[in-house]
């Protein structure tokens, strides 16, 4: 699949991911770029992140604090937490209703989320269930539900067609240059101290290395984030 350089533009952009830190790792540079361009950037986090730590008694409180710190660094205007438990996400009617409500409330032109078709990474790794379930629910909410009045009429007025950038894809077709925002992305990722701990420097190096490799793979200097860019067809 050919990967093209993509110039993101929107007055409102909405990113929706399963866990605290997903958005920062997968598309933090793009979110920072959109905010710097004047977009109102909204981040929706579906779970509490309550099972992702060795110590779980205060996991939700700690990860919420880190989420808000990271959002401030990326200049994210609004953070919406759906507060599902880790592992509890399913592409069901209730989750789609809640996503449609959020989409209609903010009326973005651009939506970012996880690619649900990514089940396996390379030869040995496989993707978290929450990422897959949230990715399918987000696509189903974006089209047809959010744009057609017969779906969830209680959720607000329908919105127009949405462009969607799917992060973490094994089949990317679009690259966003985030060279000017890479340091900000790394700083946002560093806020997740409860998960990084002593590995902070290692993860920061990995974030930089992945972005540099992504840019190199499409023949541009600096740093990039890769996406599968899609639009609804129904």
CATH top level label: Alpha Beta
Backbone CA Rg: 17 Å
Using DSSP, what is the number of strands?
10
Kindly give the count of domains: 1
What would you give as the CATH superfamily? Answer: LmbE-like
Q: What share of residues is helical?
A: 25-40%
Task: Write the CATH fold name.
Answer: Rossmann fold
What ranges have pLDDT less than 50 throughout 5 or more consecutive residues?
A: none
Give the assembly state of these chains.
Answer: single chain
Compute the number of helices: 7
Name the average pLDDT.
93
Order of strands across the biggest sheet? 1-9-10-8-5-2-3-4
Q: How much β-strand is present in the residues?
A: 15-25%
The arrangement of helices and strands along the chain is EEHEHEHEEEHEEHHHE
Protein model, in words:
With 234 residues, this protein is of the alpha/beta class. It has one domain (4-231): LmbE-like (Rossmann fold), CATH 3.40.50. It is built from 7 helices and 10 strands. It has helices spanning 22-36, 59-73, 93-106, 129-142, 182-190, 193-196, 200-217, and strands spanning 4-5, 12-17, 40-47, 78-84, 110-114, 120-121, 125-126, 163-167, 174-177, 224-231. The chain is globular, with a radius of gyration of 17 Å. The model has no long low-confidence stretch (mean pLDDT 93).
């Amino acid at each position: 699949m050919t990967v093209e350089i993509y110039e993101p533009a929107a007055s409102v952009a909405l990113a929706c991911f399963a866990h605290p830190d997903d958005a920062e790792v997968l598309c933090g540079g793009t979110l920072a770029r959109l905010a710097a361009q004047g977009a109102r950037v909204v981040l929706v986090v579906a779970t509490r992140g309550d099972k992702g730590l060795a110590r779980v008694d205060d996991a939700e409180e700690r990860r919420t604090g880190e989420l808000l710190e990271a959002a401030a660094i990326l200049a994210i205007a609004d953070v919406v937490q759906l507060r599902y438990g880790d592992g509890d996400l399913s592409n069901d009617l209730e989750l789609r209703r809640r996503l449609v409500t959020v989409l209609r409330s903010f009326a973005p032109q651009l939506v970012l989320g996880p690619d649900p078709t990514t089940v396996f990474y390379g030869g040995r790794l496989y993707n978290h269930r929450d990422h897959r379930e949230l990715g399918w629910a987000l696509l189903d909410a974006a089209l047809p539900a959010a744009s057609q009045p017969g779906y969830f009429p209680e959720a607000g007025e329908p919105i127009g067609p949405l462009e969607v950038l799917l992060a973490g894809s094994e089949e990317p077709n679009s690259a966003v240059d985030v060279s000017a925002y890479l340091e900000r992305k790394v700083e946002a990722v560093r806020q997740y101290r409860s998960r990084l701990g002593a590995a902070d420097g290692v993860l920061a190096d990995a974030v930089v290395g992945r972005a540099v490799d992504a840019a190199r793979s499409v023949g541009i200097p600096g740093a990039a984030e890769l996406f599968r860019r899609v639009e609804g067809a129904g």
